[in-house]
Amino acid sequence: xxxxxxxxxxxxxxxxxxxxxxxxxxxxxxxxxxxxxxxxxxxxxxxxxxxxxxxxxxxxxxxxxxxxxxxxxxxxxxxxxxxxxxxxxxxxxxxxxxxxxxxxxxxxxxxxxxxxxxxxxxxxxxxxxxxxxxxxxxxxxxxxxxxxxxxxxxxxxxxxxxxxxxxxxxxxxxxxxxxxxxxxxxxxxxxxxxxxxxxxx
Amino acid sequence: xxxxxxxxxxxxxxxxxxxxxxxxxxxxxxxxxxxxxxxxxxxxxxxxxxxxxxxxxxxxxxxxxxxxxxxxxxxxxxxxxxxxxxxxxxxxxxxxxxxxxxxxxxxxxxxxxxxxxxxxxxxxxxxxxxxxxxxxxxxxxxxxxxxxxxxxxxxxxxxxxxxxxxxxxxxxxxxxxxxxxxxxxxxxxxxxxxxxxxxxxxxxxxxxxxxxxxxxxxxxxxxxxxxxxxxxxxxxxxxxxxxxxxxxxxxxxxxxxxxxxxxxxxxxxxxxxxxxxxxxxxxxxxxxxxxxxxxxxxxxxxxxxxxxxxxxxxxxxxxxxxxxxxxxxx
Amino acid sequence: xxxxxxxxxxxxxxxxxxxxxxxxxxxxxxxxxxxxxxxxxxxxxxxxxxxxxxxxxxxxxxxxxxxxxxxxxxxxxxxxxxxxxxxxxxxxxxxxxxxxxxxxxxxxxxxxxxxxxxxxxxxxxxxxxxxxxxxxxxxxxxxxxxxxxxxxxxxxxxxxxxxxxxxxxxxxxxxxxxxxxxxxxxxxxxxxxxxxxxxxxxxxxxxxxxxxxxxxxxxxxxxxxxxxxxxxxxxxxxxxxxxxxxxxxxxxxxxxxxxxxxxxxxxxxxxxxxxxxxxxxxxxxxxxxxxxxxxxxxxxxxxxxxxxxxxxxxxxxxxxxxxxxxxxxxxxxxxxxxxxxxxxxxxxxxxxxxxxxxxxxxxxxxxxxxxxxxxxxxxxxxxxxxxxxxxxxxxxxxxxxxxxxxxxxxxxxxxxxxxxxxxxxxxxxxxxxxxxxxxxxxxxxxxxxxxxxxxxxxxxxxxxxxxxxxxxxxxxxxxxxxxxxxxxxxxxxxxxxxxxxxxxxxxxxxxxxxxxxxxxxxxxxxxxxxxxxxxxxxxxxxxxxxxxxxxxxxxxxxxxxxxxxxxxxxxxxxxxxxxxxxxxxxxxxxxxxxxxxxxxxxxxxxxxxxxxxxxxxxxxxxxxxxxxxxxxxxxxxxxxxxxxx
Lengths: 201, 330, 645
Prior knowledge:
The structure holds 3 protein chains of 3 kinds.
Chain A: E1 8-9, H1 18-45, H2 62-87, H3 91-117, H4 127-158, H5 168-193
Helix pairs in contact in A: 1-4, 1-5, 2-3, 2-5, 3-4, 4-5
Chain B: H1 2-24, H2 37-67, H3 86-114, E1 123-130, E2 133-138, E3 147-150, E4 152-156, E5 161-167, E6 172-174, E7 183-185, E8 190-195, E9 201-206, E10 219-225, H4 227-238, H5 247-253, E11 280-281, E12 286-287, H6 290-298, H7 300-303, H8 316-326
Parallel strand pairs in B: 1-5, 4-10
Antiparallel strand pairs in B: 1-2, 2-3, 5-8, 6-7, 9-10, 11-12
Chain C: E1 7-8, E2 12-14, H1 17-27, H2 32-38, H3 42-70, H4 81-116, H5 124-143, H6 171-199, H7 212-244, H8 257-274, H9 277-286, H10 298-312, H11 327-339, H12 341-357, H13 364-387, H14 389-395, H15 399-429, H16 435-461, H17 478-508, H18 549-552, E3 562-564, E4 571-575, E5 582-587, H19 594-610, H20 614-632
Antiparallel strand pairs in C: 2-3, 4-5
Helix pairs in contact in C: 3-4, 3-5, 3-17, 4-5, 4-6, 4-15, 5-6, 5-19, 6-7, 6-19, 7-8, 7-9, 7-10, 8-10, 9-15, 10-12, 11-13, 12-13, 13-15, 13-16, 15-16, 16-17, 19-20
């Protein structure tokens, strides 16, 4: 007869919630997707190209993307701060942190769209341009999903759904958001740093 | 001395076998006709033997295991004790590991052996896979001028030949089993390989990467000749035709086809210079005779549906003239 | 119901009629059409998967029989080349994607909670979603074919042949989009299995006590998580090249044709292990029952399962040996492709040892499970042969490979699946299948299969290439093809006998009790068929074979007749990942139409993309977002919020 603990928690509790585990493996599969996207970049990068076409127009400008990276990382900090908040039952810290994270995410998207609009090449220009728009586009799509999710979480938090026992949704959503930020680091490195390290035509 | 004799006899026997079997199954490769094929044939027989022995052994053990005791009734509730059987795993794993290790080592050795020929290649030929025929270009060197042909490659016996495989549209695969394994012709890259024929003869090849509707009828021929005959053939390929080009041919056919020494210089379809030298028509699909040539020109779609040669409207007279002229292209 | 309490001391008791009645009312699906659409019952979903997969198996089989007729002799003209090309492409796509994976998902879906002593899968709504997406993806994948626009570039769809320049028309676009949709189904299914494994095993079921089927499906699911994005991405990039003018595979513009092959096979090779490892697990669990003893070398077999899958990620290049790769790369992948046979070989010896040291019971399931061993071996050695690069340069793209892949797919998937149907049919439907028909079924399928496919080794060695719609006389292939066609029809007859047996037994099969085979695992402790809640009280196990413990006389005893009752709503017990110690009471969702709604929304998005109609696609996206929002809205009944809002 196995020993059954005296008291068991009930419902979606912290990292014992099934949804938490589901998000972990969702993150694994989405991370794999980005790994294959970046593999495609590196695979095409080492084929032969006319000079100046990979990256097209030379290495992309670093500053704007670095600023955007900082914005995204800050949004992760805000969300993390929110997570700690609800674990100590601080509802308004939760709402503020999640809201700030969403706002910063929107700013990231706006800056990225601005960067897109300033490019000299379109989607069907070269293999590089195809990779650029598709990979940053994929990431932006993930950010959009994340922002919508943060907005929903902000709303639900404001409605008082969560407390220090019931916050599984928060951690699950936050996990996704941190993942989207971590993936950006890999995308940023690939597009903006590797050409400066010599991976270019 | 003895070993050399044995080897020579063995090679002769295998070549003879290959001629016989190749007659029955031109694309078989359990015997080969080249020094490049020989180590691979040996390895193939080796792994085939291992496989057959394994199947036989496992089959025997399975039957023995099932029949060795009186079967239990369906309703029986007695259980066998959870003992024994572990030895099977260790013995089985060890024997398997041994066979696999030997195979890996042998594989790597053969791979190294056939990477490059021992001699300098006698000639370099560029082969471009097209839907659904083989474009061939002999690269001229200092001693002889290059030229183009299609679907039939001639090589000198006993000398290595370098092949540069080009993907003309989709991926095709160059395969002449009696001489060597496959190599793909992939757009965007040039794959180099080599072949060498040990004995004179005609060797059949076929495209082995699915390339569209007429993938089934994309064969080629490799004809191995003595070095003297090969040089004669090459010189003849460079010569202009004996008779002036037929006007109807120029009018209807020269947009796609080339005949060296005439105004016909189209490149969409196969080069037709010295067409009557070739053993087959439509990339190995049909033998090269007058009736088939006439049927082909009348309606290529009926013979090879989906191929890129359109049905050209010709009066029977015009068609007869064109066929007659083509048949002078020796 | 008011908000869920945060903690509870679970009542432990024996099963009573009052308890079972209460649980039945809590867990059974609503009646009628609504219930049919809204159910999240893993048993119903499992049966749907199996039935749908078999419909695709028969469809793919008919496709094959038609083009087999065309190949019976040289220079036949029963089909045009274009018809032939669509048929062989659809056949491959159907069998590998719409039958082989889903049928195993179906068995695993039905059986896992029962094997693990649980009330349901970890994510019941996700379970329903994965089925509906599978069904709709199958419809999308067939939508072109039924109007004459089926994909025709082979199931692995190489570029440039599959690019717009050489393949205009919707054929390839429907293939690409349908596959992306199907990939979502497989992925969410995989997530469900992994989370269920980690969280839903009953107390005492440590990882070294789960049935091998669970190891097989778990391994396949973990692999799918990492592998499926590769093929989904490949198809998406192809769709973009074809419709948006991108240049990933466009060689003329600097793209790469081989990029497709790498992405496809980085998925494709792990996939072929994913579609056999669970079936091997079913044999590892079923065969010992008919040898009257536990499996020899359980730990080794479990490890071999995982090892095969892990190694399976390192061999994909062996599908590309003839593409002109550098020698060192060829050597590495060749060595890996040969060595990967080792864990499989260990499995073969484990099964042989189990029969040898056991006492065979000659039932139909036993025939299928035992014959699988020799079919596996034949398929395995032909694979070993192709692993050696120089040999592969002759064998690849010939019928030798066709022989190999059919021995591994029919031998390691279909034969175990048919055996599994005979084995678990009594549990699913409360009736036994007919044994006499079962014998006829087995022998017809076995002889037909070998008569049909063994000769392909010969036609392959005689140089017959793959994917040709006809061949000239004088190639030496006529007689071999005649025998193959005859054998394949005999095999089909065997499949027909199987289907007939299923239908007849559903109506008139002898009633089956809880455990007609006297098998050891937990599913046989429930009624046949099991109640909607599976277990009235959560069992606690002490070994791999709870129902055999008293006769094997070893160690502690499992407790099945009493345990936590968990009847305050739909509830299940969550346990720790390694040692399965109870650590939470989970609130489980009931019937809901949201998964169906989300699947329909995703399909609408797919249709929008297929039509390149951005309005329809945008509508699809909006509906997807709405469905997800409704699904994820925190609910007090599931213990996700503070109190009833």
